[in-house]
Design brief:
Blueprint (H helix, E strand, L loop, with lengths): L21 E5 L8 E6 L2 E8 L2 E6 L13 E3 L4 E3 L6 E3 L5 E3 L8 E2 L1 E4 L2 E4 L9
Antiparallel strand pairs: 1-11, 2-3, 3-4, 4-9, 5-6, 6-7, 7-8, 10-11
Bound molecules: FE2/S2 (inorganic) cluster (FES).
Protein backbone atom coordinates (compact mmCIF):
# COMPACT_ATOMS: atom_id res chain seq x y z
CA UNK A 1 0.00 0.00 0.00
CA UNK A 2 0.94 3.58 -0.17
CA UNK A 3 2.96 4.90 2.70
CA UNK A 4 1.05 7.03 5.08
CA UNK A 5 2.02 10.45 6.13
CA UNK A 6 1.99 12.32 2.90
CA UNK A 7 2.91 15.89 3.60
CA UNK A 8 -0.03 17.96 4.55
CA UNK A 9 -0.23 21.38 5.93
CA UNK A 10 0.88 21.18 9.50
CA UNK A 11 -1.95 22.55 11.48
CA UNK A 12 -1.66 24.07 14.87
CA UNK A 13 2.00 24.80 14.54
CA UNK A 14 2.54 26.23 17.94
CA UNK A 15 6.22 26.77 17.81
CA UNK A 16 7.00 29.89 15.94
CA UNK A 17 10.62 29.51 15.11
CA UNK A 18 10.60 32.69 13.12
CA UNK A 19 11.10 35.81 15.14
CA UNK A 20 8.15 38.12 14.96
CA UNK A 21 8.89 41.78 14.64
CA UNK A 22 6.41 44.15 16.15
CA UNK A 23 6.12 47.83 15.33
CA UNK A 24 6.79 50.04 18.32
CA UNK A 25 7.21 53.57 17.04
CA UNK A 26 8.05 55.76 14.12
CA UNK A 27 11.68 56.71 13.71
CA UNK A 28 10.74 60.31 14.40
CA UNK A 29 9.93 59.35 17.98
CA UNK A 30 13.53 58.34 18.61
CA UNK A 31 15.67 61.18 17.27
CA UNK A 32 19.30 60.66 16.42
CA UNK A 33 21.43 60.47 19.54
CA UNK A 34 18.49 59.74 21.82
CA UNK A 35 16.79 56.80 23.38
CA UNK A 36 13.21 56.07 24.31
CA UNK A 37 11.59 53.47 26.48
CA UNK A 38 8.60 51.44 25.35
CA UNK A 39 6.24 49.43 27.46
CA UNK A 40 5.70 46.11 25.73
CA UNK A 41 3.90 42.95 26.69
CA UNK A 42 7.09 41.26 27.77
CA UNK A 43 8.51 44.24 29.63
CA UNK A 44 10.13 47.56 28.97
CA UNK A 45 12.53 47.96 26.10
CA UNK A 46 14.72 50.96 25.37
CA UNK A 47 15.47 51.86 21.77
CA UNK A 48 18.54 53.96 20.98
CA UNK A 49 19.25 55.75 17.71
CA UNK A 50 22.93 56.31 17.08
CA UNK A 51 24.49 57.36 13.80
CA UNK A 52 21.69 55.91 11.71
CA UNK A 53 21.69 52.68 13.62
CA UNK A 54 19.05 51.39 15.99
CA UNK A 55 19.64 49.39 19.13
CA UNK A 56 17.14 47.78 21.47
CA UNK A 57 17.93 46.76 25.01
CA UNK A 58 16.18 45.96 28.22
CA UNK A 59 15.12 49.24 29.78
CA UNK A 60 15.94 48.24 33.33
CA UNK A 61 19.42 48.84 34.66
CA UNK A 62 20.79 45.68 36.24
CA UNK A 63 22.22 47.68 39.11
CA UNK A 64 19.15 48.96 40.89
CA UNK A 65 16.55 48.95 38.20
CA UNK A 66 16.51 52.55 37.04
CA UNK A 67 15.15 53.09 33.54
CA UNK A 68 17.93 53.27 31.01
CA UNK A 69 15.65 55.27 28.75
CA UNK A 70 15.99 58.06 31.25
CA UNK A 71 19.74 57.94 30.88
CA UNK A 72 21.83 59.08 27.96
CA UNK A 73 23.43 57.68 24.87
CA UNK A 74 27.19 58.07 24.66
CA UNK A 75 27.61 58.16 20.92
CA UNK A 76 31.37 58.07 20.99
CA UNK A 77 31.43 54.89 23.06
CA UNK A 78 28.25 53.29 21.68
CA UNK A 79 26.90 52.92 25.16
CA UNK A 80 23.86 53.89 27.14
CA UNK A 81 24.64 55.47 30.48
CA UNK A 82 22.27 54.97 33.40
CA UNK A 83 21.12 58.22 34.93
CA UNK A 84 21.15 56.86 38.47
CA UNK A 85 24.72 55.81 39.17
CA UNK A 86 26.44 55.99 35.82
CA UNK A 87 26.61 52.37 34.73
CA UNK A 88 27.33 52.16 31.02
CA UNK A 89 26.09 49.35 28.80
CA UNK A 90 27.32 48.43 25.36
CA UNK A 91 24.51 49.13 22.89
CA UNK A 92 25.29 46.06 20.82
CA UNK A 93 25.86 43.45 23.47
CA UNK A 94 24.17 44.87 26.55
CA UNK A 95 27.33 44.15 28.53
CA UNK A 96 28.24 46.62 31.26
CA UNK A 97 31.40 48.45 30.32
CA UNK A 98 31.33 50.61 33.41
CA UNK A 99 29.96 49.82 36.85
CA UNK A 100 28.48 49.68 39.33
CA UNK A 101 26.25 47.34 37.29
CA UNK A 102 27.84 43.95 36.77
CA UNK A 103 25.26 42.07 34.77
CA UNK A 104 24.31 42.71 31.18
CA UNK A 105 20.92 43.92 30.03
CA UNK A 106 19.20 41.87 27.33
CA UNK A 107 19.39 43.02 23.73
CA UNK A 108 16.72 42.62 21.10
CA UNK A 109 16.70 42.44 17.31
CA UNK A 110 15.54 45.74 15.90
CA UNK A 111 15.04 47.06 12.38
CA UNK A 112 13.70 49.99 10.47
CA UNK A 113 10.92 49.39 7.96
CA UNK A 114 9.67 52.34 5.95
CA UNK A 115 10.27 54.75 8.77
CA UNK A 116 8.93 52.44 11.46
CA UNK A 117 10.95 50.91 14.25
CA UNK A 118 10.21 47.23 14.61
CA UNK A 119 11.71 44.86 17.12
CA UNK A 120 11.46 41.33 18.39
CA UNK A 121 10.55 41.55 22.07
CA UNK A 122 12.39 38.34 22.86
CA UNK A 123 15.94 38.69 24.07
CA UNK A 124 18.45 37.86 21.38
CA UNK A 125 20.37 34.73 22.18
CA UNK A 126 22.31 34.31 25.34
CA UNK A 127 25.96 34.06 26.07
CA UNK A 128 27.68 32.64 23.05
S1 LIG B 1 20.53 51.85 38.83
FE1 LIG B 1 21.69 52.11 37.03
S2 LIG B 1 23.65 52.52 37.76
FE2 LIG B 1 22.52 52.20 39.55
Amino acid sequence: MLPKGSPKSAEGSKEEAVAEYIRVASLAEVPEGELRGFELAGGRIAVAHVENELFALGDECTHEGCLLSEGEVDESADTVVCACHGSAFDLRTGEPVEGPAQDPVPTFPVRLVEGWIELVPIAAGGDG
